[in-house]
């Protein structure tokens, strides 16, 4: 059975195979406010659910490229844990998002793809011995920060590409990736790689952003980087060959379930590898060639525009925190 783990009060539409709506939440939940409520559907029914906004498929995103992401983190690696994380990726959120990964054995082999400064890895090593964990990222500056953290000193540190992992097929018990998919030019390829490197029965856990419904947040999301819709995560996992796909919503406590602005860390998606070997999905060449020369002027303009768009998502959590302080408890914000 595929299952979706849902909570929150934003507008949500669930559809069955015949297209008939199961429910329609327009700002009010039809269910009690209980975290991690489950809705189950048969495997043969593709779970189709999303926020109500459409997203342009051909929109150029200024940070959805490896080179822009590399230089972005070159400058923000020093302040990432102290400035960016508190608004979008707290320790409570991390632990909640990793719970579906079932990190139940200290001896598990775990790869943390796009691990950056090791913030998510700190949650992993609570349950798994650090010597069994590999942190992979394309940014040497982020990885340098991870190396400095005492709980991670025994982890393996690898510089690499999420779309072309340097691990053998059927290698790991768990695949974890937090806050990385939004930079992948081809998310389907990255999830296909997650399938390949896992052992039979292994589980992938990808934590990433959700697409906003508020028009201004949607604009900045469309020009900044990839904010997938929830049903896109499900589709990518299923196409790669994963079974028992689950999606769990996460968010800062002070958002009170509000997701209309989009969340940099908004959901945790898991899937189980049902068979040994590579993914059954066949893909063509990579969408982005990082060796291809880039026009410096065009690159600089793209990078600056991406930073400007990203500033909105630094301001949004401050705005939501202030609303949480002002609006009486129990009332929607």
Automatic annotation (TrEMBL):
GO biological process, one term: methylation
Region entry SAM motif II, spans: 155-168
Chain residue ranges for the region called SAM motif I: 110-119
Entry keyword Transmembrane helix: yes
Gene3D superfamilies with a match to the protein in the record: Vaccinia Virus protein VP39
Bilayer-crossing regions: 299-322
Keyword S-adenosyl-L-methionine: yes
InterPro entries documented for this protein: Methyltransf_11, MPBQ/MSBQ_MT, SAM-dependent_MTases_sf, SAM_MPBQ_MSBQ_MT
Pfam families: Methyltransf_11 (PF08241)
Domain (MPBQ/MBSQ family SAM-binding methyltransferase profile): residue spans on this chain: 61-270
Gene Ontology MF, one: methyltransferase activity
Region (SAM motif III): 196-209
Keywords on record: Membrane, Methyltransferase, S-adenosyl-L-methionine, Transferase, Transmembrane, Transmembrane helix
Family per record: Belongs to the class I-like SAM-binding methyltransferase superfamily. MPBQ/MBSQ MT family.
Protein name: MPBQ/MBSQ family SAM-binding methyltransferase profile domain-containing protein
Organism encoding this protein: Flemingia macrophylla
């Amino acid at each position: 059975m595929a299952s979706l783990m849902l909570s929150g009060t934003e507008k949500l539409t669930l559809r069955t195979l015949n297209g008939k709506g199961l429910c329609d939440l327009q700002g009010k939940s039809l269910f009690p406010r209980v975290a991690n409520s489950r809705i189950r559907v048969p495997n043969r029914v593709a779970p189709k659910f999303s926020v109500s906004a459409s997203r342009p498929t051909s929109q150029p995103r200024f940070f959805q490229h490896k080179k822009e992401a590399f230089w972005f983190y070159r400058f923000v690696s020093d302040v990432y844990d102290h400035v960016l994380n508190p608004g979008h990726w707290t320790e409570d959120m991390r632990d909640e998002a990793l719970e579906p990964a079932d990190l139940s054995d200290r001896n598990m082999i775990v790869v943390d793809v796009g691990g950056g400064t090791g913030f998510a890895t700190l949650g992993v090593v609570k349950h798994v011995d650090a010597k069994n964990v590999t942190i992979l990222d394309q940014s040497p500056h982020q990885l340098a920060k991870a190396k400095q953290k005492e709980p991670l000193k025994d982890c393996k540190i690898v510089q690499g590409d999420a779309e072309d992992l340097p691990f053998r097929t059927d290698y790991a018990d768990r695949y974890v990736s937090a806050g990385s998919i939004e930079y992948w030019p081809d998310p389907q390829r990255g999830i296909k790689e997650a399938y390949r490197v896992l052992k039979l029965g292994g589980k992938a856990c990808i934590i990433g952003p959700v697409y906003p419904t508020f028009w201004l947040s949607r604009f900045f999301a469309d020009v900044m980087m990839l904010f997938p819709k929830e049903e896109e995560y499900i589709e990518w996992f299923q196409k790669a060959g994963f079974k028992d796909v689950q999606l769990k919503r996460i968010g800062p406590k002070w958002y009170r379930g509000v997701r209309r602005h989009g969340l940099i860390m908004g959901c945790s998606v898991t899937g189980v590898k049902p068979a040994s070997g590579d993914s059954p999905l066949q893909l063509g060449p990579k969408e982005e060639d990082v060796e291809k020369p880039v026009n410096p002027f065009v690159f600089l303009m793209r990078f600056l525009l991406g930073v400007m768009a990203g500033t909105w998502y630094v301001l949004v959590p401050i705005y939501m925190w202030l609303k949480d302080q002002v609006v009486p408890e129990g009332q929607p914000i």
